[in-house]
Amino acid sequence: MRIKGLKLSIMFVVVIALGAAAGACGSDGNDGSDGNECAPGTVEVDGQCVPFCSGTEYWNGSECVAGLACAPGTVEVGGQCVPFCSDTEYWNGTDCVSAPACAAGTVLNATTGECEPACADGTYWTGTACADLPTCGDGTEFNVATSECEALCAPGTFWDTTTETCLDACGEGTVLSDGVCLPWIDVVESDSVEPAENNDAMMGGMPGMLTVPAIDVSTVLEGIIDSPTDLDGDGHDDADYDTWYFSATQGTRLRIEGWADGVFNVATLLIGASEDESNWWYQRYGLNPDSPESERDFVIPMDGEYLLAVTDFSNLTGDIPVGGPEMGYFVNITQVLNPDPIAGTAGTPQTGSAFDIDQVTYTGTAGELWDVTIDSWGADTYGIMAVHKASGDFMQQLEGVDCSGSACQPEGLTGGLKFTMPMADDGGIVFTADYKYRSGSGGDYGFTVQPNPNVEVLDVDVSIAVHNEDLLSSEGEIIYQIDVVGGNLYRIAFENLGTDVTASLYATLHDFDFNILRDADTEYDEAPWEFNIYAEVDARYYIRVIDRHQEAGSDYTYDLRVSSWIVENLGTLDAINTSITRAGAGPVAAAGDEFWFVSTVDQAAEITGTFTPTAIWNLDFEIYNTDVQRIDLFASEGDGEAETLRGISAAGTYLFRAYESGMDAGDATYTFDIDFTYEEVRQEVEPNGSEADAQEIVLDYNGVGELANLDSEFDEDYYSFTLTADVAVTAETYPELGGSVDTMLWIYAPGFTPADDNPFCDTAECLAYNDDGGEGLFSLIDGVLLTAGTYYLRVRTFALGSNGYYGLRVSATEVICNSGETRCSTVDVNILETCNAGGTAWDESTCLHGCDDSSGTAVCGSTPVDETEPNDDLANADVISFPYFGSGQITLNDMDYYMFTLPSDGIVVIETDVFADDPVIVDTRLRLYASDGTTQLEYDDDDGNGRYSYIEISLTAGDYYVFINAWSSQVGFYTLSVSF
């Protein structure tokens, strides 16, 4: 932390010298009589006559101050009660010893016991001569015994120059600066000031950038919690959050202090983002409802990007946002040393204060299950723990519940809040005993970590029947461990056989990290609970059984079985291995028999799979993903007929299941043949539901897509393509894979807005549209003239109920003008233009709007603009003056800079808009920079007309830079106005 023109100091204090206090005994008795030519009521101390102090006081060098109440016959010397010495003795620090008879002109030094020359007032005996007493600084006095200026104040206190007394500490809201308690707001200097609003990254704003300081080094942020504004456009004002982004490594410990410069309670929030930044998985709050200041430590759980937000306490906890220009703040961030973890003992409760954020480590056997039971965390504290491997890798987060003063007892668990997790594969786990937030002064924690005593190893292909009325009476659960073999498929069947109507068993399937993969409730009279898992590699799974209601005496009877199948690997289908055949793949001997196969497809392809029975029986055929979620069922061909799959498959691994659905037990053995063929195909790749996610294709394109609408939302597919020359483009949808979907088809220029309510072209960016011009209800856009550039295709259904596959072809034909022929104008497809020069093609370099022959009907020539290229950097910025209205052009990856000088303070309006001579919409982005060309004062994207930009800002007189570019790879023209 830096101080404005001052230096924070800590004053160290030593005990007042014994010699200065020893005179409190006097050298002539304790009755005030003069033993060394001092006036009545005074005594001689270090060659000077000073007031005599009572038995409950002592002389501190300048006055009598309260001291110890000493017993009769003793006096206080140096803060201790010692025996009183007679007129002919003095205290040498240990005993009363005889004092020598000093000659005239000398006095006794009560510290050394020697006679020294009597020095004049203002001087003292140095041991060899009389010397002038020096002038000591504030809060110190001269000790003749040590010949040094020594502090007046005891350790832990400091000398206040205003009151000239020793104080314990500065008052709230003040800090010590060169011996003076000053308001902290007057002495703190910030290292970084909040960027221009909106800087709330959670509301789409641009946060400030923060660098984590080194250990024991601080950095100070400064800002204002502004008045609430509507940031998300929902009609309601949003609280102001000032945010800073920073990168940090796992284990970094940050101490973050917030101080309010106004009537509010400053609060901080530290959050961490997953790869999907909308999921803020890590949240820690620094709150203090009772003070305008807040302080807490934050321990970074894993390497990554984090966001620090600052706001008012009530904005985090209340319903009505607050803020205003008077609500300033400073936030001091210090990296402190993160101590080594404490060694915990399994089964022994671990206690401490969450505000210290202890880290506790346990060791055990890799893979065994351990229980973590949180016994307490304080009724006003939301406890939370991050769990790491001993190596430091993050494992998971154990998040508690707000107990609100009552016991934390989730349904199905006894005691406190209980978690089950495996010991890490490196044999160690580290718990960070943290808290999410607190609403009071509580926070002491207690938790216990120990191996789970209720884990049983379950044999595969063995059915177990469990009957145990006391199943859940103690630990509340049974966990079964299953070790699976890679390449096999396993089916887990669980059935509640109890007859007690109150018994509701809850069974869950977990992976090695004890994450839940499947879960289900089973009442006593419900059908069995069943699901499959495919083990691609050797692995361990767990099945956990608990009772939802914890009914004592309930009849807990259930049947649990794990069955397995060897999955035959059919190999990989690709451009080289286009066919797989298996003859006699059975046998299927009875109803319910089934066989599993797996195959990998190297890229999107059309797969034809045929399962042919060798006898007259009804074969069913299903396809699954590796999560064993069924993708499709083929079972409609009847007895003795082959079941055939034909469809487009994305790259990946697929499981196939074949079984006989109608055979009775005891029927003869049957076999079946398998045949797979592979044909490469271009396929739609999701997500492609917007311009930003459009799938890029290359002409000539022929592929397959699927429209799968939800009940209330259309599935739309977007494709983009780029033309290098002016051509006529044809796009059409057609039937594919048995699809009969009713399609609609559009072609757009960049920056378009889909016309959801009106399916026809009703915007300047819509260049062509068709509904039913193709085969049946499919669509056809035939020969629309397009200049070089990027365009977008949009495909959707006419109605929500019309779902299915479609084929898509997109092709281009070069446009040739023959003398005397006509063609559609690119300005308006309803206007015919005459071509005078035979054999010529459309050429944008010579003619933007018309035939390349300048004698043709259309007027040739490029569109003039006011912008002067090159103006892609500050040095070449176009200089403009007020008021300015002009035009410019954005080419691919183009940047346009303008510079203006503001003659006086005032409000400046900067705006881009559509260029009338070329009405293609360009999505502009607008930035305003200070005179250095790097300090961004304001940014805007779409606050202007449509997708154009608008900035209104109050500025002081001076030079400024305007920066304009386009979103993504858009190109086109724009107008720029700057007014003052």
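(ticket continues) Second input and output from the same batch:
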Amino acid sequence: MLGLTLREEFQGRRLKGTAIELANENNTGATQVSAAEFLGITYPTADVVSAMEAIGPGHGQPVVLIGERGQGKSHLLAALYHGFTSPEVTAEWLKAWGIRLGQSKLGEIKLRPKTHVISESLHRQNHKFLWDLLFERHPNGAYIKGKWEAQGDKRTDIPGDKLLVELFKHTPTALVLDEFQTWYDGLTNTKQFPWRTWAFNFIQLLSEIAKEHPELLVLVVSVRNGETEAYQQVHRVNPRQVDFKGPNARRDRLRLLLHRLFDNRMNVQAPQIEAAIKAHVDEHLRLADVAPAEHQRIRTDFVEAWPFAPHLMLLLEDQVLVATQAQETRDLIRILADVFKSRNTSSPIITAADFRLDDDKSGIAALLDSVSNQHHANLREKAQRNLSAVLDAVKDPAQTVPHLADIVGALWLRSLAIKNAGAEPAELHVDITRAKAVDDNFFSAELSTIVENSFNIHQEGSRLVFREEENPQAKLIANARNDKLFGDTPDKLNDRLQLAREVRYVLGGAETVAKAFRVVVLGANWTAEPWAGVDETDLPAQWDDRIPLLVVPEPPDKVEARLGTWLKERLQTRRNAVRFLLPRDGGENLFYDRDLLVLARAVLLADKWKAQNPEFKKLHQKYERELRDILKRRFDRFAILATWNFQTPSQCTFHVEGHKEEGAKIPEKVDELVAKNLFVSEDFDALVLTAAQQNESVGKLLRELQEPRPGGEDCIPWLGEIAMKEKLVRICARGEIAINLRGMEYLQVRAGENEETAWKRMRGKLGTGKHLDETYVLLPQAVPHAEGVVPPQPPVVPPINGGTGQHPLNPQPPITGGEAGGDSTQPPISTPPGGSIFGNGPTTTVKQLSTAGATSALNLLGKVESWGITTGTQVQDVQLKVANLTGAQLNELLKKLPDGITYELMLNKEEK
């Protein structure tokens, strides 16, 4: 750093105390070393010069130094001490600085001849009364003390002014009292021990003697402020005040610090400094939006403060040291020395960013030694944890957040301030700028990454600030970005499962609400392991009659080839029933999209932590809403199978359509588009008529519809069981087919009945489950009804397999034999022509049917069904023969007989 070197006393691994002690037991105090040695580390500030002038010959004012700890009062008192005891050396020192600074008046300051000095730091409490100090240290003190004590009853509480004048006439004296206020405030003042009153009166005597007899006594004291009782008596004689608040006080103090720290700071020329820090200063002027008229003044300030940035010095002096109450050896000089030793040698300037939390040699140790507030120590620990959290959460931190330690260190230091704690982003940007400017966009991204992964950084307006309390939102996001917390092992949180759960909710709604669609989100590796991570209830083996809507996590590269192959390899049944929901082209895999994963993790963690803090409940709602808003617009198209090719599945074709809906409206919209645009009614009608020719069950027909049609035929889109059954009944209502409802009822158009009337009568009569396997599709036929026999006209069936259309024969339900070897069939009995009471009506044939032997009730039901007896069939002379039964069984049987019909009962009763 331009050859700048620290003084030898600061170059050791452990710094000595830098607070000025007037005297100590080791004889290393400021008044115990040589004048040349002490003045060699002293810069002639305006306050030093003013005080030197005030103690010169002919001046009759006491000198009072007013200022809080750390402003240089003790150092100035020590300089005055050497001005009294070594006037020749002090004069040479002033003259040399006058030449160096171009201020010839410094060499013209008149100093007193060598004067006896009594100096004491009163806070050490080595003397009970001030006069004890005088009597002990003054050459004629013992004599005056004896003379005072010899007054007997006439002796006053404190030595009188005549005795004191006599004392100082013997040897003119300079009385230098440091920490006068601290000592005075500690005195008791009771009726028995009125020591403060005595001290008050005694200092008044000394002040008056110093004013009236300046050739005999010079009084110099230091106090923390001018509003205390300790200062009042000195103030009455119009003392010379040095309050370290002059127009040049800050600049002088800075120069004093730099001179105190470095051997050769004055030897480094301004042009060299300007060239070295140009990039930093230029960025400061730009980012702080400094007016052009102020540029030169700001550049001068930077040169004056070098190697430290002036904004760092302001921060330390005005905010941090006040907040931490630095005192004694815990002062600014030590902090600056520590941070200078740890700085990067290539860095042209030292800023708040050099207080790095990851380096114990960066000045942090010295600063923490100055911290008397446990809160600030805790804040450092929090900041260090945040630093580690960012490192854990960010991949490749050296590239993503190269200024991480600098930014966190600068923000932590600025957060110690009393007023305007924390920092604007622009201030942090300046702090990390060294020899080269940092790109604005890169810095913004880097800072955003740090804030998002730290849980103690709070946003207050536009400022960022470290707080001891955790920022719930920052903590949540920081943990959500930590990949080490998430995975598919039992000890970690499953973020992908949560993301799939959110997708399923967005598209299908709450799982507790019955829906017509089953939304299944395929796994991340959907082509090889599609069911990995999928709930057991959503596996194909558990599918019910809901339409499966399979969510593909990424846009397939070749939709038809990829989906066709997937259907063959990953799904064994219901291949024609599924619908694929596809994401927008160009997107990445749902489960590898980091932004979505972080949001899903935030939802998962907030839900887990909401019992601890109500803020997490709000955050849960916030991030859940954000995630769902993104997901509901992610899937913009669907695909269903068009033609199937089992041998070469890559040649399958699909209908791929956009739906223009979002979220939970997508499944219904897809269903609407499939039914409206892709479902061909003629194909479905032809398939149903073919099934009717073969007397197939409805259950078989519906199962076949859920599988692809072979031979390259166009697949008929599956609309769901309910919709398909309704379409089947609609065909029946048009009179094209009849339906045998488990042998209990025939659905068929009646004479003179239109389609709509028939539809209303038939709809909803098809059963579900196993009942559908017992329900048959038939071609229309003469079926007896209560109002007569309806002879329907059989429809013309479209050509089948290239044949010609024809009227098929009416198939009859199969008739099977009974358990005892078949049925006993009697010859049909015909009524004679004209048998109707209303004239020539249709001839009625009566056929006798019976079982061959006794059988079970279940077999009897099957037999009745096989005979073609339905709910509307008229039967006569029904005889039910039971070989043996109990009275209870007989009563139960009689209770189940229908009302409105008369019965005869004959039985053989066993008598005992």
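Agent notes: Residues 327 and 824 are 121 Å apart (CA to CA). Residues 326-330, 784-843 have pLDDT under 50 and may be disordered. Closing as not reproducible unless the customer responds.
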